[in-house]
Amino acid sequence: MKFVKASKIIPLLIIIGLPVILGLITFTAQAPARSKGPGAEFSSTQAFEHVRYLAQKIGPRPAGSKAELKAAQYIEYVLNQDGWKVREQPFSKVIVRNADANQPEQQVELINSQNIIAELPGTLPNTVVIGAHYDTATMNVPGAVDNASGVGVLLELARVLSKEPHQKTYQLVFFGAEENGLVGSKFYTSQADLSAVEWMLNVDMVGTPLEIDVAGKLSAPPELLKQVSVLAKESHIPFHISRDFTLMTRGSSQGGSSDFSSFLDEGIPALGLGIYGRSAGYFHRPEDRLDQVSLADMQTVGDFAQGLVSRVAMHKVGPQVWDELYLTFQMGENVFVLPSYGLRALIILVFLGTVLILGRFIRNSKNRRKLNWKDVPSVLGIILFLSLIIIGVSGGGEILWQHLKQTEMLYFAHPEVYLLARIGIALTLILFLANWFPKLPLKRDPHLYWFCGVLLLLLGSLALALVRIDLAFPFVFWLLCFDLLYFLPSISLALIGPYFLYRMHYELLNSEQWLGFYAAIHKYPFVFLGLYSLLLIPILLACCYVALKRSALSQKVLAYLKIPALVGAGLLILALGLVPAYTKEYPQPVLVREEWSGSRNGKLHILADDRLPSQLVKDLSGQEGKSIVVPLQNAKPPLTVVSTVEEKASGSQRILDISFKLSYLQEPYLVSLKLDSEHPFEVKTDEFLPMSKLPKKIQLIGTRQSGGNYSLLIQRTPPQKNSIHLTVETEGILTCSLAGVFPDLKPQLEISNENLSVDYQIQYQEKYTF
């Protein structure tokens, strides 16, 4: 059917493409000139020695621990030797994590730590801040890569900068408690005078390919991104700009991946350097040792960081507002930026073009006679039903092998294989079901399917554009492809439409969020079944349109592919059984925990989220499963507790004054109190958690759980106290679980298996009823 002449299509496409071209042309930044003058060369060997001291001599450095304090003292000593003005910034912060799907009760934690701040004054007040965190994720993680490597680079950078002539003022900040939710950097930005800060650079996990991280709750300004990416290209460093996929995680408790996010929140241009790709198996595990650190990577990143500090120049200083709704497109070493005005113009023009095409489509007399609005719901309903089948069956291979192998985390070592298998099974199923399409009670008018697809994408894009303009772009691009599909019915164009959704998942796959995302799919399968089924509907509608427009060719192809599709799906499912769930690079996490309860004899508990290896079970004479318990002999509990309670009545309320006296064989890293009652309750405690440090409008009250009870979890990092006092107001019986967690420095059972990542710890726990 003739609809719009080609002479009218071409100008329309040029007009639509104009803002894109203009937006891309805005990236014409040149590399800032390198400052001249004598100076020292960055030495990866000296930087590596700092890493060795932190990771090997000091070891794990969780927030508030004595080891973290030793690391702070070492950092301060090195900075003083290089002539920097150094000061400590201790802090004690109460962090509130509200209840969510993963943490059912409200969690309140006291974090004690300190930042180390060093300054090298220049002739100008303009200040460049360079940061790195020096704490580790847990008490058993040496943290060589995360983040002794970043600290090593900064300490060597401190030596180099102290010998270079410079006009700007340099400030190095070593943050504490980053792993607890960017606590140190948030405290720093809340206390510091940022009026002279030009920009901030953060180094967190040194390695290549280099991740240039520019997005937190806000994004770094395009001006900074352009300069840094030009310098990365000039340095011939393989790099990746993080931007689009992080939109998915901005609502998280941290809002960003490292301490530069705290500066972005305050309107200071900032970005971070890290390692691009999915987190290695040693990430936040005991295997994060010195052998994971690359001397060559430290030299590469050190030289690059030195170049950034000396060459990047921003036009303004202090907190500012910039365009953060831009989009980035990376092609090899070239990075293009589409600013928000270009993005808005593009979206408006695509919407306008779509509305014009729909208007002329509906006004066309032939279409008006064919189009029956009653057919739209039936088409969408049947296509949705097919989508549910395809998405549901695509995960059948995992479900089958989870049952046969009795392994829940099949995807841990190779999630990309299971992702590709899902896509492959879905495609083969689409090809198979397409042969049954003529038998379905659906109208055979191809334009009806095009109309339904355009209508869905137009409404979806409009809704997202009203929420956040850059979130709408992937769907607007898809809508544009759907518009073009009307004139050029091609299966390639139908599949290209969701390109930026594919890209978002690829970015997610190559990030530390991937395993959490994949685990969420397994935890909430019906939510994701519905979500991905809805996303599949426009793809199926586009395929139906192309197939009906070219029915003769599609029937031959589909008939030919019917049997190969079934065979392919079967082979894919069988092949998944050969994929190992755990490998040497991605070992299975196992916890060996010495457990004590009161004065009773302790036990050794070996447990994991998945089934323990058969050989380990056999060696320990246990039973197949996720845990093994071995009695402890001739051992003493790490903690003794004496509790007292006084009760007062106030109407229907019970007021409980609860006291605990604690005696430690060694200081625990974490002490926690979990309170539980059938009735609402409120807690007051100035000894365990200073009430004055609670965020405004936050009270220590029990959160209602799905089972009907109310609960609250409060905990603190070192230094620990020998007594705890709290006052609880409630109507009913109160259960209180007191727990202390200790590092196990001399484990009674050591497991050696290259496919296991073993974490050793001691736990004391006692439950009291008041």
In words, what does this structure look like?
With 770 residues, the protein is an alpha+beta fold. It folds into 3 domains: 6-15 and 341-576, no CATH class; 44-101 and 114-338, Zn peptidases (Aminopeptidase, 3-Layer(aba) Sandwich), CATH 3.40.630; 639-769, Sandwich (Immunoglobulin-like), CATH 2.60.40. 42% of the residues lie in helices and 22% in strands. It contains 21 helices and 22 strands. It has a 16-stranded mixed β-sheet that branches. A 4-stranded antiparallel β-sheet has the order 14-15-20-17, with no helix packed on it. The chain has a two-stranded antiparallel ribbon with strand order 9-10. The longest helix has 26 residues, at 551-576.
Gist of the model:
The protein is α+β, with helices and mostly antiparallel strands and 770 residues long. The strands form three sheets. The protein has a 16-stranded mixed β-sheet that branches. Strands 14-15-20-17 form a four-stranded antiparallel β-sheet, with no helix packed on it. A two-stranded antiparallel ribbon has the order 9-10. Strand 11 and strand 12 form a beta hairpin.
